[in-house]
Amino acid sequence: MQLDSAAGVSKPWRLRPQVSFDNAHVEAKWRANMAKYASGEASTEEPSQAEMGDMFVPDNDFGETQFQVQQQKCDDEDSERRRSAIRRHSSILLSSYITSMGSEEEEGSWPPNQTKKSRLGKLLKSRQCETVIAIIILFNFVLMYLDADARAAGQKPAKWQTISMSACYWVVVVEFAIRTFVEGRQAFSSRWHQLDLCVVVSGFVEQLLQWIDFDSRGIGGIISVLRCCRLLRLVRIVRHLNHMRELTRLLEMTGSCARTLFWAFLLMGFLMTSWAILAVEVVRPCVVELAQSHGLWADCERCRRAFNSVFEANLTLFQTIVSGDSWGAVALPVIEFRPWTAAIFMGSLLTIVFGVLNLTMAVVVDTFAEAREND
């Protein structure tokens, strides 16, 4: 037996403690020597062939012992594991390389339109582009203000104002065209894009009518309506200033309570019309008697016909109750003349002001609180 002195192995049982033996007697001797070595009783000298017994007796024709055979098997297994690991790692590297080459080929094979669309889409969604468009919309608002003042004074807008408004319109057209090119048909499913389409169409019709000079042919009302459609461009500023959190939050809250305000308006109109019908049936005779017999409201033509019809009664109730304008000009003389009419005036005041309006305010505040909790 030869021991590996370079590795510092001086005991044969330190070679491979995990080896197995075919001979139980040899294994028992090996375990006994291991126990002696662990307890310190084993000699530091190398054991003789007689001490080890048949442990290192050759077991085959090549003169190999059991230790040598087991060590060779373990070495072969380690080598096989290393080779299989190398093969797996090589296959992984090869597959990743092939995948990366395939993706590069796919990117290189993209049509030019796809690259242009991606670049234009990033440009439109950039904060710088949105800020510039928002500034143009605000500048267009100032131009609309100056244009309305000039036309109300019977003057034509300055030439630079007309050119600037046309330039602002064509900026909107270019943005609309680019967004349609980038998003395709899916763009028209967006409400913002539908709003842009309305702005573009109304602006085109307005400029076409101005170029034909339809304003001097008695169709100025159509152009006035189209000019009012310019205000739709201001709504687009919300789309381009979405990075302003406070403004976006305020507009979202306003939109969330729009439905509440709509139903509150309908409820108030229904209730006010009901009181107006009662006023026409009950209060109008008292007003007519006071105006004709007692000469009251001689200097107030509107007071004399305050309840002549349901429409005028609605206007009177809205003026006196909701707006709080001259409530006593009509109500107090009628109540003094016929005290029982106070039920109509007081009832309409309490139900509309302290009922519908305050209830609407409470619902709006509750809607704001609910929206804040959801966020």
UniProtKB/TrEMBL annotation:
Subcellular location: Membrane
Protein name: Ion transport domain-containing protein
Membrane topology summary: Multi-pass membrane protein
Gene3D superfamilies assigned to the protein according to its UniProt record, in alphabetical order: 1.10.287.70, Voltage-gated potassium channels. Chain C
GO biological process, alphabetically ordered: calcium ion import across plasma membrane
UniProt keyword annotations, A-Z: Calcium, Calcium channel, Calcium transport, Glycoprotein, Ion channel, Ion transport, Membrane, Transmembrane, Transmembrane helix, Transport, Voltage-gated channel
Source organism: Alexandrium monilatum
The organism's place on the tree of life at top rank: Eukaryota
Family matches, as InterPro entries: Ion_trans_dom, VDCC_alpha-1_subunit, Volt_channel_dom_sf
GO MF term set: high voltage-gated calcium channel activity
Domain Ion transport, first and last residues per copy: 129-374
GO CC aspect terms: voltage-gated calcium channel complex
Main location: membrane
UniProt cross-references to PANTHER family, sorted A to Z: VOLTAGE-DEPENDENT CALCIUM CHANNEL TYPE A SUBUNIT ALPHA-1
Membrane-crossing segments per the record: 129-148, 160-182, 260-280, 342-365
Pfam family of the protein (one): Ion_trans
